[in-house]
Design brief:
It is built from ten helices and 14 strands. By secondary structure, the protein is of the alpha/beta class. The protein binds flavin mononucleotide and adenosine-5'-triphosphate.
Length: 314
């Protein structure tokens, strides 16, 4: 998959392309349906498929403080788009210049001159251009004049409601991991490099890998059953995302993972933590002994789960 960063680096492929546009945060089942349709159209028209995304995402540009937390980092999003068979990702800087482009200029400069578009696949609620003035009907008219087709993707719903990145964030924040995972079509993951922690977990009896979240805020908190792929070996474990109120943290959320029956050194490695079930909320315990007892129970639950025992029997 080819990555093009910025409008100035974009030139149309000789044969043109089929394309879609959006944030694609999380690459959920709704996104996956659009990408599958895009792939089909690319094969029919014998042209590459292209996804246009924005960095930062428009809401992060307009109101950085109120912008929702990301489900996927750019690196994770690109990996998921590549797995969905996308040939080219065009990552446009969402800045003043882009936000001031009229809908007409967006079509001319990005879709026609930039991409040489033959077919566009978008949701029927898609809006674009300065002040979100461009809509689906506007695109259809422009396509008729400029020789490209536009198709509205079928809305993907779960339990009668449209799947969206927003809904997944809400499910994760409210502790409904299983709903979030069903909308994603896969278990939620968070990834990052393993850093050195305060080495207290070792004293508690359960060494943990501290996964760096950088400035990224995780979309959920609590204690989870997880697994991690270490050099091709899937290892079960238990993870905590939170502020560690019992030991007075640094005020920032941390992701810590204890892997079952594992004694290797993970410092510096990049880990992808896969979230399967929520066990409980993070709590402030009155003593380290009480915290240790709670983690002992979490680890016992993880052991039972990864040995295939149903959780309600634990
Ligand atoms: C499975 C698991 C559950 C945890 N639950 C809590 C919790 O409920 N409350 C809390 O204050 N800390 C909790 N922690 C975080 C511990 O306080 C943390 O591991 C300890 O502070 C050690 O940090 P360190 O690795 O930086 O040394 C949990 C950690 C793990 C691995
Ligand atoms: N459930 C869905 N079914 C079909 N298409 C969808 C669905 N959700 C999003 N799309 C389409 O995928 C493209 C990218 O969507 P985008 O990531 O911008 O929206 P979203 O998932 O609804 O996010 P948000 O919740 O932040 O609005 C758009 O064309 C959008 O209309």
């Amino acid at each position: 998959m080819q990555l093009v960063r910025g409008l100035h680096n974009l030139s149309p492929l000789p044969q043109g392309c089929v394309a879609t546009i959006g944030n694609f945060d999380g690459v959920h089942l709704g996104h996956q349906a659009i990408l599958a349709r895009l792939h089909e159209r690319a094969i029919e028209l014998r042209v590459p498929s292209c996804v246009v995304i924005f960095e930062p995402q428009p809401r992060e540009y307009f109101a950085p403080e109120q912008a929702p937390v990301r489900l996927t980092r750019l690196r994770e999003k690109l990996e998921l788009l590549s797995r969905a068979g996308v040939d080219r990702v065009v990552c446009l800087a969402f800045n003043r210049r882009l936000r001031e482009l009229s809908a007409r200029a967006f079509i001319d400069q990005v879709l026609i001159q930039g991409l040489g578009i033959k077919h566009l696949e978008v949701g029927d609620d898609f809006r674009f251009g300065c002040d979100r003035a461009g809509d689906f009907d506007f695109l259809v008219d422009a396509g008729r004049i400029n020789g490209f087709t536009v198709e509205a993707a079928t809305t993907v719903e779960l339990d009668g409601m449209r799947i969206s990145s927003t809904r997944i964030r809400e499910a994760l924040a409210s502790g409904d991991l299983s709903l979030a995972n069903r909308m994603l079509g896969r278990p939620y993951t968070l990834s990052g490099r393993v850093l050195h922690g305060q080495k207290l977990a070792r004293q508690l009896g359960w060494p943990t890998a501290n996964v760096q979240l950088k400035r990224r805020l995780p979309p959920m908190k609590g204690v989870y059953l997880v697994n991690v792929d270490i050099h091709g070996q899937i290892r079960g474990g238990v993870a905590n995302i939170g502020l560690r109120p019992t030991v007075k943290g640094d005020g920032r959320p941390h992701l810590e993972v204890h892997l079952l029956e594992y004694a290797g050194d993970l410092y510096g490695q990049h880990l992808t933590v896969v979230f399967h079930r929520k066990l409980r909320d993070e709590q402030r315990f009155a003593s380290l002994e009480a915290l240790k007892a709670a983690i002992d129970a979490d680890v016992a639950a993880a052991r039972a789960y990864w040995l295939g025992q149903p959780l309600d029997e634990i």
